[in-house]
Design a protein that fits this description.
The structure holds two protein chains of two kinds. Chain A contains eleven helices and three strands, in the order βαααααβααβαααα. By secondary structure, chain A is mainly α. Chain B contains 14 helices and two strands. The chains are: A mainly alpha, B mainly alpha.
């Protein structure tokens, strides 16, 4: 069979766009990461979304929707201007917004806020919240334990007094996307990693979060332990 | 140069994909700030790159996850592009890839300046050896991405810089690689494709087993060498019966449909057809004898 360029051009369009349509129909086509966090696997909250799996790419609108928190509450808790478009403002954007702060306000802060506001279990690490967020939690959740109240007291950041630059220039931080290879690149040894996860070295291409999820380890605790090695 | 008709369908397809990917990239930037072009995807560049599907395969099979920033769409596109390559060779390179297209367009300027010297600057022996570098790049990128779990090549990738130079996502090194590639395109046709492109290296292998091959009829060929002189990848089509060269990008410039002046001399035909025709021709010759 002899073919010409028109045949090839048509084939390109049919195969590429036809393939995309078919894969879309089969739910195989996805150009972004899932915006569904993991759910708790057991306990009273089994089947409820786990705030510890909130990703930096989630918008505040999505967080409000997933965890049934009023958008006004989120605006106030994170000191966002009233006209902020929460359908595009992502939790990771907090880090840029508060980059001059002494303590990091970011995606981790959103996780802690959502968990404690809704009285959901979470391993508390070293995440900080604005004073407004702490007040909102204390006001809304009367079931907080003494330990949680103490944590909030020790991890609240005053918006004014904290707004001075961080001394270190560029800090390596382990976050949800960091792979073990990247951790190794931050001058942390295999032995140190093995000691923290209490297991042999996982595949270096695996993300720390995925490893923790698969092995039932609290990501926030592992993350903080790794980050503390870089201090 | 001989022109058979004014409309070149391949260039139209190249422009279509160049503009489409460009609009999607702009839309992605606009979406980050709340704007955007309605009814147009705002997918990230990574999610639309079929090579992302290649580099994520190891992680997908070993851990069941994708490399960071890569999504299912990259794997789907990788499969579709591979299907096209098995049928027609690396048509992705010659017809779709925006980086290939922009190099080709820069090359047109270079051709006007350098005339016959264009694309014939590097000594043949050195040129042939350099063309194997891209296999090293392919192995390095796949290996490093597999062990690290992130897009290690992304910072260098001129394709990414081409559609991100206006945003903070573009790296200085990537823009540098893009600028050097475009400058080299003024003296060598498609330098990135020839010497460094890891995806081109992978797709180029399909030239050895593609279903529709470019064939030359030696009985009607006049050895005018128009095909050789115009092949962007410097393949000597006039010296072969079938183009089985790992560098062919399936642009079909050499064919009788485009530049070959003799009808039905350089054509694209399927393997089965060519075998059947060979058998028929041999049978006819025997009957004549």
């Amino acid at each position: 069979m002899k073919i010409n360029k028109t045949f090839i051009a048509i084939s390109i369009f049919v195969i590429v766009f036809g393939g995309i349509v078919v894969s879309n129909l089969l739910n195989l086509w996805s150009t972004e990461a899932s915006k569904e966090p993991a759910m708790y696997a057991d306990g009273d909250v089994k089947g409820t979304y786990n705030p510890d799996d909130i990703r930096g790419s989630y918008t505040f609108e999505r967080v409000a929707d997933l965890f049934s928190i009023d958008e006004e509450v989120l605006l106030e808790a994170f000191g966002l201007p009233e006209d902020t478009d929460l359908s595009i403002f992502k939790t990771k954007n907090l880090e840029e917004m508060y980059e001059s702060y002494q303590y990091e306000i970011g995606n981790g802060s959103v996780k802690v806020f959502v968990a404690l506001y809704n009285n959901l279990p979470i391993e508390l690490g070293d995440d900080y919240l604005l004073t407004e967020a702490v007040d909102l939690i204390l006001e809304h959740n009367e079931m907080l334990t003494e330990e949680q109240k103490e944590y909030l007291e020790n991890h609240k950041v005053d918006a004014v007094s904290s707004s001075h630059p961080i001394e270190s220039e560029e800090k390596n931080i382990v976050n949800g996307n960091t792979t073990f290879k990247e951790v190794l690149n931050m001058d942390i040894t295999e032995e140190q990693i093995e000691e923290i996860i209490n297991s042999s070295m996982p595949p270096t291409n695996q993300s720390v979060r995925d490893y923790c999820t698969q092995n039932g380890l609290p990501f926030s605790v592992i993350k903080n332990a790794l980050n503390s090695l870089m201090d | 140069m001989l022109k058979k008709n004014g409309f070149n369908i391949r260039i139209s397809v190249q422009i279509f994909f160049f503009v489409l990917i460009g609009l999607i990239a702009v839309n992605h930037t606009l979406a980050e700030t709340g704007g955007g072009i309605p009814f147009l995807s705002n997918a990230s560049l990574h999610s639309l790159c079929p090579f992302g599907g290649v580099v994520t395969l190891y992680q997908f099979f070993s851990l069941g996850t994708f490399v960071k920033q890569i999504h299912a769409s990259s794997v789907v596109l990788m499969i579709l592009i591979m299907m096209l390559a098995i049928l027609f060779g690396p048509v992705f390179c010659g017809w779709v890839c925006p980086l290939g297209s922009v190099q080709e367009w820069f090359g047109k300027i270079g051709k006007k300046i350098l005339k016959r010297k264009f694309n014939h600057i590097i000594p043949k022996k050195l040129d042939s050896a350099l063309r194997y570098i891209r296999y090293g790049v392919l192995v390095w990128v796949v290996y490093m991405t597999s062990i690290s779990g992130y897009l290690i090549f992304s910072e260098l990738d001129p394709y990414r810089s081409l559609y991100n130079f206006w945003s903070s996502e573009a790296s200085l090194i990537g823009i540098g690689v893009l600028v050097i590639t475009l400058l080299l395109s003024l003296i060598i046709e498609r330098p990135w494709c020839k010497y460094l492109c890891p995806y081109g290296a992978l797709l180029g292998i399909t030239n050895f087993f593609r279903i529709f091959k470019i064939s030359r009829n030696s009985k009607t060929c006049t050895q005018c060498k128009i095909c050789d002189n115009n092949c962007p990848m410097n393949i000597e089509v006039s010296k072969t019966e079938k183009v089985l060269n790992h560098q062919c990008i399936s642009c079909y410039k050499c064919t009788s449909e485009e530049l070959c002046p003799v009808p039905d001399t350089v054509i694209t035909k399927s393997i089965s057809f060519s075998r059947k025709k060979e058998v028929d021709e041999n049978k006819l010759e025997r009957e004549v004898e």
